[in-house]
């Protein structure tokens, strides 16, 4: 794992040379393929070095982080044209990638905590430095304080567990069980805020609306998955307690998912609508993890990867419209099918992914989650039915409002999609649909 870390570190000086924007991006793509080839044997922990290692859960999320960071550079064409602190922007992305890489590969839980919280800093810099409106300062404060409020209890609980076990290695915690309710709440609340769970989700729409396209992509694509990853790692400590009170989180998440889905129909800002849809999907992920069964964990993991690709692609689409019209309002973004008929196909493909229709990864993830939750309690069927129905509803609402109707007559300058944008969307859509061929369908029987 250290060799890959050094690879990213040695890329940093390239950011300060002229016209290295695309070279950094190409080197990130090469890095991803190198990591994929070297980490093929994932039946056990591999690439062990110092306090870092990789298993199946880490592998997919590290790949997703590298892929989204590469596509962030491709999506930020406007920065390349304006040269607005371009070197610092590239440095910030590489620093963020290092933080995410170390978070997912850390085997020491204190190191995991440090990098988990450290990934907040470059995200905050992205929003404050390259955001659009003055309200980005308020959005940054929301993001900062929501996260930091639950950060200290997590750190204290880690010290408490270390005092009990005399080890910080995550994989030794399978031999440790704890039934303390205060410890349980201290540890999982930090991950619920990061997901985010309903009731602690208000920072997400604000951060998305004010963030630049690169900030929205990394927030939706990877940052929300940090919470899910943390839950997957620590649930092993609190199995007994979760069996007793896990139903509370399932109910909050699924009811919250229904309310947020209804809230999506009230949105007029495209980014805000996509952000709220992320909260609904992550609610299902929390529900799946809290059931503590194999299908729930597996479905949550698949949906996290699929949602990371799909929502990031949807933010790219909204940015493509924003670059041309200068607004994300659904009242102004109308009749886009008249201007960009080929882009309308991409809108349709990503809406299909967002409503979890086959053959996307989202479909298989939600299928497993529905099986898991209904087998856990048949009452969840009502909420799951509503979430799935409303998910299709707001996806079609976004598609029909933006693509159909009378177009904006105030439009005075326009150009159709360019090859870079089509490539960007294809690189989101292709892995979202192609990975279904790697699923082990024998375990479904």
Features:
445 residues; mainly alpha; two-stranded antiparallel ribbon; 2 strands
What does this structure look like?
The structure is a single chain. With 445 residues, the protein is mainly α. The protein has one domain (10-38, 49-442). The chain contains 20 helices and 2 strands. The protein has a two-stranded antiparallel sheet. β1 and β2 (52-54) form a beta hairpin. The protein is globular.
Ranges with pLDDT <50 over ≥5 residues? none
Mind summarizing the main beta sheet? 2 strands, antiparallel
Distance between the termini: 36 Å
SSE string: HHEEHHHHHHHHHHHHHHHHHH
What is the average of the pLDDT values?
89
Shape: globular
In percent, how helical is the residue content?
over 70%
Please give the radius of gyration in angstroms: 21 Å
Oligomer: single chain
GO biological process, one term: electron transport coupled proton transport
GO molecular function: NADH dehydrogenase (ubiquinone) activity; NADH dehydrogenase activity; ubiquinone binding
Enzyme class: translocase
InterPro entries: NADH4_N, NADH_UbQ_OxRdtase, ND/Mrp_TM
């Amino acid at each position: 794992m250290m060799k890959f870390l050094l690879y990213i570190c040695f890329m940093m000086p390239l950011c300060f040379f002229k016209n290295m924007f695309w070279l950094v991006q190409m080197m990130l793509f090469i890095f991803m393929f190198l990591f994929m080839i070297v980490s093929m044997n994932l039946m056990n922990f591999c690439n062990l070095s110092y306090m870092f290692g990789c298993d199946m859960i880490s592998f997919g999320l590290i790949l997703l982080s590298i892929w989204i960071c590469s596509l962030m550079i491709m999506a930020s064409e406007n920065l390349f044209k304006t040269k607005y602190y371009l070197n610092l922007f590239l440095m910030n992305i590489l620093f963020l990638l290092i933080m995410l890489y170390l978070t997912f590969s850390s085997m020491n839980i204190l190191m995991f905590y440090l990098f988990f919280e450290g990934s907040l800093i470059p995200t905050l810099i992205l929003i404050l430095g390259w955001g659009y409106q003055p309200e980005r300062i308020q959005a940054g404060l929301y993001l900062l304080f929501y996260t930091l409020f639950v950060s200290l209890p997590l750190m204290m609980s880690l010290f408490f567990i270390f005092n009990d076990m005399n080890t910080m290695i995550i994989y030794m915690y399978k031999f440790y069980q704890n039934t303390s309710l205060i410890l349980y709440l201290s540890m999982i609340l930090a991950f619920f805020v990061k997901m985010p769970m309903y009731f602690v989700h208000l920072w997400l729409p604000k951060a998305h609306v004010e963030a630049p396209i690169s900030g929205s992509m990394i927030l939706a694509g990877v940052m929300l998955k940090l919470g899910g990853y943390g839950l997957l790692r620590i649930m092993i400590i609190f199995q007994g307690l979760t069996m007793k009170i896990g139903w509370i989180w399932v109910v909050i998440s699924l009811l919250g998912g229904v309310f947020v889905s209804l809230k999506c129909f009230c949105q007029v800002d495209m980014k805000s609508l996509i952000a709220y849809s992320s909260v609904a999907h992550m609610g299902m992920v929390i529900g799946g993890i809290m059931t503590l069964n194999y299908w729930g964990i597996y479905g949550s993991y698949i949906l996290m990867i699929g949602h990371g690709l799909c929502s990031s692609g949807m933010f790219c689409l909204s940015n493509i419209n924003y670059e041309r019209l200068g607004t994300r309002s659904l009242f102004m973004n109308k009749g886009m099918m008249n201007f960009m008929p080929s882009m309308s196909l991409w809108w349709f493909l990503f809406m299909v992914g967002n409503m979890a229709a086959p053959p996307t990864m989202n479909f298989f993830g939600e299928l497993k989650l529905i099986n898991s939750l209904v087998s856990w309690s048949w009452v969840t069927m009502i909420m799951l039915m509503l979430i799935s129905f409303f998910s299709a509803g707001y996806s079609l609402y976004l598609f029909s409002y933006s693509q159909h109707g009378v177009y904006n007559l105030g439009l005075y300058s326009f150009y159709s999609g360019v090859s870079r944008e089509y490539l960007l969307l294809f690189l989101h859509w292709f892995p979202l649909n192609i990975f279904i061929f790697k699923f082990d369908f024998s375990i479904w029987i």
